[in-house]
Amino acid sequence: MSTLLFYKEPVALNREQHKAIKFTAQKDYGFTKDTNSVPLTGIEFFEASRDYPVLFSKDDNGEYFPLALLSLLDGDHHLVDDKGQWDDIYIPAFIRRYPFALTDEGTVCFDAKAPHFESDDGKALFNEEGENSEALSNAINFLNHFDAQHKHTRAFCEAAKESDLFKAFNVQVMVEKDKPLRLEGLYIIDEEKLGQLSEDQVNNWFKQGWLAWSYAHMHSLGAIRRLVKRQQNDVEDNSAA
Length: 241
Description:
This protein is of the alpha+beta class. It has one domain. It is 33% helix and 21% strand. It contains seven helices and ten strands. The chain has a three-stranded antiparallel β-sheet with strand order 1-7-6. A hairpin with a 5-residue loop joins β6 (100-102) and β7 (108-111). The relative contact order is 0.18.
């Protein structure tokens, strides 16, 4: 999983080197346009499931991780307008944390090329005493929460893998007329095997919130139909243009 998917020039934040930097919050998500999926944390499954299929993929180490499928095609997902404004649906936290990020060692980074830092009228990241400003503290709190949820999600995926709950998800959809599209390399939780967990496992999964996550994931599969319909409308609109 690429944790710095959108970052052109990630830099470790330094209170001496970057004391003069100003930050301006933006709702321009145009930087995501060429991405057809983004990682999710388990706590997001509930809300994301209303708008996106929540599926699983594998990283380079063969470890499973969940993602929100934004588009069935490579390239523009058509969820942002010409000004980068996101459609009136859920925006994954992986996207909302930009332009900041947290390394595995807990170091705060930012994308030095992000437009959030181009204006001198923004909010300072550090005060005159060199302490974190409210704007930076809020960003770090969000990153810490995201990191904690990411680790909990990783534990969920490891437990599901150990119980052999993942199965391949291959589906063929029709976005353009006479041009079937086959989705491969994705995985879902096997509901039948989930029902075969031992009583102790079920109790643990319930306490961890993983049972609820599993069923939210299964519920999200119905969003594939909505995604197909949205893509078909996009294709029709482009053809008519």
